[in-house]
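As promised in the previous annual report, we have extended the structural survey to additional targets. Below is the entry for Flavohemoprotein B5/b5r.
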Amino acid sequence: MAHNGRGQHVQTGFHFKDSLLFRPYAPLRPLLDHEEDGTLDLVLKTCFFHRNRPGGTMSNILDCLPEGEEVEVKSPSGAIHDQGHGCFSINDETYTFDEVSLILGGSSVTPGYWIIARFLGDKSDKTKLRVMGASTSENDGLMKDELE
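The corresponding structure token record, generated without further manual editing, is:
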């Protein structure tokens, strides 16, 4: 999946009795082609109902699933495809950049994390990378330790 889905997301679905719920998630692994083993790692933030905001439907379902329960996953998709070395395919047109800036917000950090990890893992990639993150509170952001 890494080769075909760099920086993209997968659609994760859960079947109810009479409907299907889908939500996009950006996988954290595999990052590189040699890591592909037919599995993927996702980071989910379980958002419980709060008086000022609704809970996260899919994150709560996935958080409560018993081991062995099935979910549906569709292959990677998205308009932006990281091809490495500052090269991105955006809506089927290729662009190359010497510098890339990412703005990561709250629980939507995983697509950016994927690109950061891939950049840092490829010592031959000389693209300059700048990252700015934001979240509702200091404790609200996902993967803070990994990003630091």
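The first strand starts at residue 9 and ends at 15. The mean pLDDT is 78. These points will be discussed at the next consortium meeting with the crystallography subgroup.
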